[in-house]
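Hi C.,

You asked whether I'd gotten around to modeling the 264-residue construct. I have! Everything is below, sequence then structure, no commentary in between.
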Amino acid sequence: MTTATEISNRIIEAVMAQKLAPGSRLGEQQLAMLFDCSRTIVREALTRLATRGIVTVSARRGWYVIEPSQDEAREAFEARRVIELGLLHQLKVVDKTALRELKSHLQREKAALAGTDVGMRSFLLGDFHVCLAECLGNSLLADTLRDFTARTTLIAMLYQSSHDAAQSCADHVRIVEALEAGDIAGAEALMSEHIGTVQSALRLQTSSDPLAGLRDALAPVRKSPAPTTAPARARKPRAATSSIPPASDPDAPADASTYLGALL
């Protein structure tokens, strides 16, 4: 039977592969049928993901993938910058085993870029940062980075990132090359530049006004001015004819022009 850990890992992988978009609903019954397990196990997996900030629950909507706000997006990138730069800053040397693993990961990235599996490409580009932490011997930070990487993947989808996948791969190559050359400070600077480039590609509003979006939406609608028309010429009174019944006759039908004038 599928465990809660396996379910939560599959959901994280789907997010990193951009197969689960922000706001995607995660029905307990559907997941239980899909993974052939009880709803209790599914609920345990979703509760773990909620604690990790990947999903949330609503009394009316149920479980669904988070939709990060702009402030949460900035905080996620700030957290990644602190963790990843700190990880590199305290580094003294990178052993050969770690370098081989990082280079192997880069080869998989390049193969994914040359292929057509967009999900695998997205997953590997995000997983590079997790792999780096693992190779540098910090499994705790690797787990933390996995969650933050998943969150920034959702942010990239939600805010329509224009960042190029090939550029990300090239950045990763340069970082590993700096580590191989023993230039730890250079690798740290490259990582800072890389994270900044990815963040700057997001379409985030730079306005500090928290009401900017609502203010624009509720601005008065500019109505076009009413077309000007020439003043109507006064009509000359029509001469009475024999076809018009006398006004003194209450039972006589009224002239059609009288009704038309009233309507206009």
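If it helps when you're writing up: The longest strand covers residues 55-58.

Thanks,
B.
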